[in-house]
Amino acid sequence: MTTDITLIGQGQTKFGELWSKSIRDLMEEATDAAISSSPCTALDIDLIIVSNMLAEVTSGQAHLAAIASALLPHHPPAIRVESACGSGAFALHTACAMLESGRAKNVLVIGVEKMTDVSVDTVASALMGAADSEQERPAGLTFPGIFGLIAQRYMHEYGLTRDDLSLVSAVHHRNACKNPFAQFRSEISPDAVTKSSMISDPLRLLDCSPISDGAAAVILSSEHSSPIRIAASQIASDSLSIVARPTLTSFSATKDAAERALQEAEIKLQDINVLETHDCFSIAAVINLEDLGFCDPGEGIQVYKNLFEGKPTGFGVNMSGGLKGCGHPVAATGIKQLIDVAKNLQATNQRYGLAHNFGGAAATCGVHILEHSPSS
Amino acid sequence: MTTPPILHRQNAKRSKKLQDGTVLSWTTMSHPLEGFGNRPRTVGLIELEDGSRTLGQLLGTPMIGQRVRPRMVLSSVNVEGLRTYDVAYEALVTVPSAIERKEFPGYILALTGPSGVGKTTVSRMLVKMFGHVESVPILTTRERRDGDDGEYKYVSKEKFTEFLKKGEIIAFAHLPSSTEERWYGYRKEDIQKIWKRGNLPVVITEMHLLRGIAEHYGRRSILSFGLLPPGKSKRAMLSALLHRLRLRGRETEEHLKDRLANAAKDLEFFRERADLFDRILVNDDLQTVVETVRQHVPGLAK
Asked: Which residues of A are the active-site residues?
């Protein structure tokens, strides 16, 4: 980073089926919480970045930047950023770029998604906008279908068993119990995952993150100091369609973004104490650990075996409950991850945390590294 | 949303998808995208012969590494009622050698139809009436049940997979159900033994098995009869089947549900793959069915 950027404010709504709240209500609730937790006032915000993917389809609402701007009394300039489920990370990256360029000093980044107002068919179809509309969609694929293809191939290549894969959601649900903002605050057994209804072979219902409403907001600043600093903000891309990729069992965008982020933060992977990864489906959680470099290809499940059995892993994974336990209002997820990493670093008094957020089948990916310095 | 212009562009590229290929991965979605029907849909990532990759609907039992062949099918119907046909890929059974496939090995009498239609009864009658007709045992991984009457050979799933890998099974069907995982197949050895004795093997098949046998020995080797339950509509046919299955009393209600779901697919198969049948008979009178089969099978007519 060419400028010191700090995280000075954070807030979020509970994630879940929030029928009584509009997209504006969600943005307002998260924004109010973020501003009241920060050392600045609403009038100090000189730019807003809004992260959203689906509002046109699910709420009939475009032009979210104007709504966001009107949340504050002085109507600061606002921009909307979209990169499917990775919108949050891309909004954060845009905010960092604005701060580094000097065009803004205090940027409010809001991630919001309102998904439960429409039918599941409508959401499934809208989410397919994150895949290739001339490759995946004409085949009738849904996102569970795409990750079903990925999981099937992974099992074939590495011998991952159905019972082992079920440990992933069990771990995430257990973590979500401690998170007051999580959609599912209940433990589930691996057996319940294995026996849940089939969604897209071999993925079952409890392998899939849910459809959720929610918003999360952070304030990034180049003006105010804070114990949490953004040590790295990197984004990367891959081909949109899985058809054009050489492998299904690894996401190159994750590898690229993570490698660059570690370089930017000037740390080693072993320095990371906590991480939030994009576990939209349980198989993604396994692949993410391998692509981020925490284990060799085919070994990701071993981390979850250790986590499930309470054995030491050297780093915490999705302590918030991840997308599976917390819920996945798609464009809010990347912002929420940053909040959870920051909270975790402060609660455990550790130094480095990593947030990994991707869009589609990791066609886009953003990795942020946070540094916690208690003395600041 | 797949718009007409997108479909138009797809059509222009369709000829590139009309190649044999290999399944790299597959999944069966319980709820496919809107417009693609309400039934589970199996989609595969296929590596085509020219090295390119594509996504397409998979017909038949999916398996990674399986060879597939393209076939046009009705793919989707949009909200305006526009029917879209697209390339789907049909799974082929692993064939040990091309030469073996081209040779005419002998006739196989195949009786195809949904559960409860009376295939086993017709087969037993034929075996009883004609000395040189022999039924081929079905290899299965399912549990032995009361009422099974020697038509099955029971093997473990590991053994079944081993046979499959060695190419000893010429046709197989994988029928996952809500209660168990079932594999069925016919062993080459069992059929060849019957031929060696100079007899006519009779097999009881469903869509996957019939397709597999036709692929392995060639269509002309099969004297293929489809058996339909009585009834003017699909609903009436399924109702007749349910009645028969309940009377048979071999299955739990859970199994009956699975069987009925598979039966609905079987009925569809008669329409889709009429080319695989010589005659389609309605089994409302056993004697008439046996007589019709007798008249159309060489060596039985006299």
From this structure: 85, 328
Q: Where are the alpha helices (DSSP H) in chain A?
A: 23-36, 55-58, 64-69, 87-101, 120-127, 143-158, 162-176, 190-195, 252-265, 282-292, 300-309, 322-326, 330-348
Question: How would residue B95 be classed by pLDDT, with cut points 50, 70 and 90?
Answer: very low
Q: What is the pLDDT of residue A374?
A: 79
Which two tokens mark A118?
């429409």
The average pLDDT across B103-129 equals 85
Judge whether residue B166 has pLDDT over 90.
no
If you compute the radius of gyration of chain B from its CA atoms, what whole number of angstroms results? 20
Burial class of residue A349 (count of CB atoms within 10 Å of its CB; 0-12, 13-18, 19+)? exposed
Task: Measure A247 CA to nearest chain B CA, in Å.
Answer: 10
B98-296: which CATH architecture?
Answer: 3-Layer(aba) Sandwich (3.40)
Buried b / exposed e across B190-203, counting CB within 10 Å, b at 16+? bbeebeeeebbbbb
Set of chain A residues whose Cβ sits within 8 Å of the Cβ of B70: none
State both tokens at A255.
């590898």
ipTM entry: 0.94
Q: How many angstroms separate the CA of residue A27 from the nearest CA in chain B?
A: 28
Q: Is the pLDDT of residue A367 over 90?
A: yes
Tell me what pLDDT residue A95 has: 98
What pLDDT digit, counting tens, does each position of B35-61 carry? Answer: 898 889 999 999 999 989 999 999 987
Report residue A276: phi and psi, to 5°.
Answer: -115, 125
Minimal C-alpha gap between B236 and chain A (Å): 30
A197 interface with B at CB cutoff 8 Å: yes
The Cα–Cα gap between B214 and B87 comes to: 21
Q: Of all residues in chain A, what percent carry a pLDDT higher than 90?
A: 98
What are the boundaries of each domain within chain B? 4-91, 98-296
Lowest mean pLDDT among A297-301, B22-26, B123-127: B123-127
Question: What span, in angstroms and rounded, lies between the C-alpha atoms of A153 and A340?
Answer: 32
Domain B4-91, CATH = 2.40.50
Q: With contacts defined as CB-CB under 8 Å, which chain B residues touch A197?
A: 30
CA atoms lying within 13 Å on the CB side of residue B242: 14
Interface test with A, best of B42, B45, B74, B174 (most A CBs within 10 A): B45
pTM score above 0.80: no
Please check whether the domain covering A6-119+212-221 is classified as CATH 3.40.47.10: yes
| Average pLDDT rounded to a whole number, residues A239-265 | 96
Q: Give dist(CA B302, CA B300) in Å, integer.
A: 6
pLDDT (average), residues A310-322: 96
Q: Which helix (H) or strand (E) holds A81?
A: strand A78-81
Please tell me the distance from the alpha carbon of residue A26 to that of residue A15, in angstroms, as a whole number.
10
Give residues with Cβ within 8 angstroms of B118, minimum separation 6: B227, B244, B283, B286, B289
* DSSP symbols for A84-121: TBTHHHHHHHHHHHHHHHTS-SEEEEEEEE--TTS-HH
